[in-house]
Structure formats: C-alpha cells, structure tokens
Amino acid sequence: MTTAVPTDPEVEILCDNLVRIFKAEGVEVVALQGLDLFVRAGELLAVVGASGSGKSTLLNILSGLDIPSAGLARVAGSDLLAMSGRDRVRYRRHTVGFLFQQASANLLPYLSAAENIQLPMALARTPKGERRQRAMELLEVLGIPEIADRGLSQMSGGQQQRVALAVALANQPRVLLADEPTGELDHQSSEEVFGAIQAANRAYGTTVVVVTHDPLVSEHVQRTVGIRDGRTSSEVLRRTAIDEHGGESVIAEEYAVLDRAGRLQLPREFTTTLAMKDRVRLDLEADHIGVWPDRRGDQRGEERHD
With contact defined as beta carbons under 8 Å apart, do 80 and 61 qualify? Predict the structure, then answer.
C-alpha cells in the first residue's frame, strides 16, 4: 500500500513526510522521521504502536500543541506549520477537540456534567441560550442524559469519560483526537466509551483519530494504522463479508505501507521468524517482489568464525 499524497478533497487530515526533532541537553531525538498519513472526513481511525513509536508526538502536532520540524501537516484546511499563535488558539478552540486518557484532564470537579460541557462554549462566546441546549443534546447522543446535573463524585469512571468526550465535542470540532480514551477503564466502561465515540462519529460526522492499545477499539474500526520508529509502517483494513448462508463476518487484511521514497517496514515478527537482519535479497517477479534472507552473509560470518 502506497501513501502517495491524496488529492481527494474529502481528506481531512494529511501528513506528508512529517518530521519532528527534539533537542535535549545537546542531543537530538527524532520522534517522527518522515511519517505519512491521511484520514478522510468522517472516518474513525485507530492508531497503534509501541511506546516511543511517535504516536503521542503525532497527536500533539495534530492538536496544535506542538509544531513539526519539517514536512506537511494539514488538518481541516489549516496548515499546522504556518499558523500564528492566535491562529493556534482559534484552531484548538474550534477545529479540534481532544479527549485525554484521564477524564479529569477535561473536567472541573466543582462543576456538574452540563456545566463542564458548557464551559468551552462560554470561552468560545457561544450565546448563553444555546449552551444548555447543546450540552443536553450531547449527553443524549452519548447515552447519559440523566447525569446532567450530577457532580463528578456522583459518576462512574465511564460516565466521567463520556462527559469528557462531550466537553471535547462542545464547540462542534471537525476533528476529534483521543489519546488512550479507554486505557483506565474496565471492560464494560470501555465498551460504553467506545460506543459513545462511535455514536458521535455517526451523529455529527466528526473525523476521529484514536490512539489506543485496546483491542476493543483497534479491532473494531475499518482502518487501523500502525506506527513504528516514527513512520507509518502498516495498515489493517476491515470489511464485512456475507457468506452463502447470509451470515456476516469481518475480514481483516494487513498491508505494509510503502512511502513515496519507496521505503517499506517489514513486520518485526516476519523478520524475526526468518532471521532477517542487516540486509535482504530481492527478486522482481512478474506480479510481485520476493524478499529473501541473505544466507550468503550468514555463510561468510560462519567462515570468519571458523
């Protein structure tokens, strides 16, 4: 699968050869090294990867909290490398919503659920008459209208996270970014929160990017993107198939991502199983490319050892 820059006007998020370099005590750390990604408007996408792969850096850039070192990052028509400070405030207030792993990061403990949801609308100067109506509508869509006037101490963890989701959606953002939104919840609460994210995606057409380690999330979306060593490395595409008896099943197909420079990351379990390291041998066939371990290199190593 290639990640050539899409020209589809429906692409809501576009990253092309995205680079982010941090400097700490004179040492450069490359968090993103040529990452490519596109997300279409209204899509619900999961992003997975090991700790340190670049997932959090990507979310920070897409949310406007961090600035890339090079490359292209465009969200809902906004160029994230060219925005002024004032543009960034407006972008974070109106274009993107952010759902943290801990509900407390989105909520104030001394406000009720409805008051928490109305707060970002007040900061955006939404007319007072519209705030309560919007808050109640969100609570209804997310399945918790009965807790509108409850304080945080009167809510379960799953309810708090759904209120936090409503806060992130309060100003009708085009894009919702969620960082491990089910990471601290039990199985039932995780199902409820993910169901609420799906409901918001359907009801409002909000584009959603979820960074997650939770299989409940990553295995129940149509597209899951894997990040490794600061680059997109794989995609899993899912579709529903109907068999001859009318039964439905989900078919998942995994692809490696080929970037515009022709770079390809082979899955680590594949290279480990076949003892591939340092270099591999390639064969061009009529309809595919063969990738083979470099056995001659092993033989030369054995000869030197002898």
Answer: yes
Residue type, 174: R
| Sign of torsion over alpha carbons 141, 104, 58, 73 | positive
Compute the distance between CA of residue 35 and CA of residue 58 in angstroms, rounded to an integer: 9
Q: Is the dihedral of CA 266, 268, 270, 274 positive or negative?
A: positive
- pTM, two decimals, is 0.88
Report the candidate in 129, 131, 126, 162 with the shortest Cα–Cα distance to residue 145. Answer: 162
The series of mean pLDDT values per 10 residues for the chain, 306 residues long, is 55 95 86 94 95 93 94 95 92 95 92 97 92 96 96 94 97 96 93 96 97 91 94 90 77 82 79 82 85 70 51
Report the SS3 class of residue 151: coil
Q: How many residues make up the chain in this entry?
A: 306
Query: Rounded to an integer, what distance in angstroms lies between the CA atom of residue 80 and that of residue 73?
Result: 6
What distance in Å separates the CA atoms of residue 11 and residue 116, rounded to the nearest whole number?
A: 32
Query: CB of 95 within 8 A of CB of 176?
Result: no
Cite the beta strand spans of the chain per DSSP E. 11-24, 27-40, 44-48, 70-75, 78-79, 96-99, 175-179, 207-211, 223-228, 231-242, 248-256, 280-284, 289-293
Q: What count of Cα atoms within 13 Å lies in the side-chain half-sphere of residue 185?
A: 27
Q: Which residues contact 207 (CB under 8 A, 6 or more apart)?
A: 12, 13, 39, 40, 41, 42, 43, 44, 174, 175, 176
Task: Characterize the bridge pairing of strands 289-293 and 280-284.
Answer: antiparallel
